[in-house]
Amino acid sequence: MQKAQTTIPFKGTKEQEEKLKAVITQLRDEKGALMPILQHAQDIYGYLPMEVQEVISEEMDIPLEEVYGVVSFYTQFTLNPKGQYNIAVCLGTACYVKGSKEIFDAISDKLGIGPGGCTADGKFSFEACRCIGACGLAPVMMINDEVYGRLVKDDVGKILDRY
Amino acid sequence: MIRSHVLICSGENCTSSGSEKLISAMESEIVKKGLADEVKVIKAGCFDLCSSGPNMIIYPEGAFYSNVTVADISEIVEEHLIKGRVVKRLLHHDFTQEKTVSSLNEVPFYQKQLRIALRNCGVINPEDIDEYIAFDGYRALGKVLTEMKPEEVIDVVLRSGLRGRGGAGFPTGRKWQLARGNAADQKYVCCNADEGDPGAFMDRSVLEGDPHSVLEAMAIAGYAIGATQGYIYVRAEYPIAIKRLRIAIDQARDYNLLGKDIFGTGFEFDIELRLGSGAFVCGEETALMTSIEGHRGEPHPRPPFPAVKGLFGKPTILNNVETYANIAQIILKGPEWFSSIGTEKSKGTKVFALGGKINHTGLVEIPMGTTLREIIDDIGGGIPGGKKFKAAQTGGPSGGCIPPEHLDIKIDYDNLISIGSMMGSGGLIVMDEDNCMVDIARFFLDFTVDESCGKCVPCRIGTRRLLEILDKIISGNGEMKDLDRLDELCRYIKENSLCGLGQTAPNPVLSTLHYFRDEYLAHVVDKRCPAGVCKSLITYEIDPVKCTGCTLCARNCPTNAITGTVKNPHVIDKSKCIKCGVCQQKCRFSAVIKK
């Protein structure tokens, strides 16, 4: 899937950069350290903008295009900042056959944004996700780490209003 | 003295339904009533009956409570734990027998199952190594290190007939033998816990409910092939599994069951965790290893096979979580015991994640050779709402749809391939008459197009063309020659793709085209979707006889497509209708018909 670059200016702090550099120093000598470092970096910044990738490339002595190649390959790595609340609707098979596409469309309609988008106030971001392994509760969605299961279309509004 | 054990499921499904809150509420209630010295609360692994969670079992009675809420806790403590009276209204209600059951052994969901890989799930506390050890944990590793030569271990695994549970079914012992035969200064043991098939969550359950069984088996594999380092590649989407694996690895190191000089035999083995970052193709073995090395997870051609040149260029074995979960039992109970279970060429059991249109969703572990009908009707409790069975999908995006005429086929690796599906990692999704098979084929293609890594042309471009043809059919513009094109393109992609993802990607199309050709014809020739799923091909109409003119539909229609006056039949203007179906949901008189 093509990943769009963000247009939001980078707002990283000195503390974040120090944290990142500490992680790099700690993991640098492990075999295949790039992935774990990128995962830590995303935890620190919430996303992986070019500025962060440049630091990693510089410190690790790995060409930037190779770092970017890895970031753009894996769906968990994001080039865009997420909203305060990230909504992920499961479109795995078990959820799909139980109508998760309807839930997905209802949220998209309600928020007025498509998958991968973020509302103008930065409150909600929205995406489709792969199976989260809660198939017994299908159809499910996650808002940050909270899982909502056995959804019907009418629940969507009520749940979003709580945030 | 502890007189009662309260086991509360802390698997993913029950945690999502709030079992964490139940655990803390139960613990504080027990303290409040002064029972802390008599009753122990255990955070157990998955009980597998996920559809009725949160679930709780109280021993010694074995009372199985379902759909428990925090509000029920004080009653359970007061009635059951203090007065010794089972709380009948919370007992698990079984759909198939239309009755409540009092203990775990009476639940029909478990009766036809044989639990080897899931033996400890829902029985022990996965965060406590002592409980694993109390259930014979690490005894197999001890036996292997002190009594057996590496060749003998491989021989036992070979004779057991165990085949890879990740889907392809390669004999596990043969894999180990190949890696043993290649001399090198370093070898690696890897565990594939990148469970990517949508709808499959058996590996997650093992990792969350019994993580030590995987660690123990990896150490045994390390001894057998001569490796000192293991890697577990686990999906980042499984936070509970990752947490419990970390705890398990730390505890095993503390007990010196991982590390140097294990059991004082001089054998050294350690395990590191690596997190996947959401790429389905990384379930393919060469792609997974490339990913652990820190690159884009792209596969490469075999040979060389990983047993010769794998991770970091060294001989490597890669087995799936469920495969490892069988190993310790095979060592302890012997290969003859294991090979006595199952069919001629597929031994042992297989765990399936039962999902979709079925009463009991959850995990089932059945001996190979059980029929699909037994799984769906006897264990799964049939299809809800009296609907008709249409198909069962196995093997995820690599598998196929099995029609009703094959319900009595005995499930094993070879039989499933003979009917155009495959075992896969074990997702089993049941579909009823309301699911459109063309739409399902499109769903899987959409998935593979998204997940194709792009390295080889047949997969990257071929799957996209397949998706486009399916979209054309679903939108009502299909022609007869499209069906032939689909068939031809599918065969081309199967034969020419680089890795397993591309080679199996056409299976959902081929199997639906074969078994449900009439549905494709309905879309192409009659421009009709028999299941009423494909929006371009359905219309909503109001039956003037049933319509009472209550105006409810007109008031709820988002596009004002419905007109009519009070107490007179209403009409839908098809040019304005966006087919959202709200009118049909709202109508109290079943007057809105979908055609």
Which topology of the largest domain in chain B does CATH recognise?
A: Rossmann fold
Overall structural domain count of chain B: 5
Largest sheet of chain B: 5 strands, mixed
Shape label of chain B:
globular
CATH topology-level name of the largest domain in chain A: Glutaredoxin
The Rg value of chain B, from CA coordinates, equals 27 Å
Helix fraction of chain B by DSSP (H/I, runs of at least 4): 25-40%
Structurally, the number of domains of chain A stands at 2
What's the overall average pLDDT of chain A, rounded?
89
| Strand segment tally of chain A | 4
| Greatest interface | A-B, 38 and 52 residues
Number of strands of chain B: 20
Mean pLDDT of chain B: 93
Based on Cα principal axes, name the global outline of chain A.
elongated
**Contiguous runs where pLDDT drops below 50 for at least 5 residues of chain A:** none
Q: What is the fourth-level CATH superfamily of the largest domain in chain A?
A: Glutaredoxin
Give the termini distance of chain B in whole angstroms.
66 Å
Give the spatial strand order of the biggest sheet of chain A: 2-1-3-4
CATH class of the largest domain in chain B: Alpha Beta
Number of helices of chain B: 24
Structure class of chain A:
alpha+beta
What would your notes on this structure say?
The complex is a heterodimer of chains A (163) and B (595). With 163 residues, chain A is of the alpha+beta class. Chain A has seven helices and four strands. A four-stranded mixed beta sheet of chain A has the order 2-1-3-4, covered by helices on one side. The mean pLDDT of chain A is 89. Chain B has 595 residues and is α/β, with parallel strands linked by helices. Chain B folds into five domains: 4-107, Glutaredoxin; 129-339, Rossmann fold (3-Layer(aba) Sandwich), CATH 3.40.50; 349-432, Ubiquitin-like (UB roll) (Roll); 437-524, NADH-ubiquinone oxidoreductase 51kDa subunit, iron-sulphur binding domain (de novo design (two linked rop proteins)), CATH 1.20.1440.230; 539-594, Alpha-Beta Plaits (2-Layer Sandwich). In chain B, α6 crosses α13, α10 (211-225) packs across α13 (321-333) and α17 (437-451) runs antiparallel to α21. The chains are: A alpha+beta (163), B alpha/beta (595). The interface between A and B is large, with 38 and 52 residues.
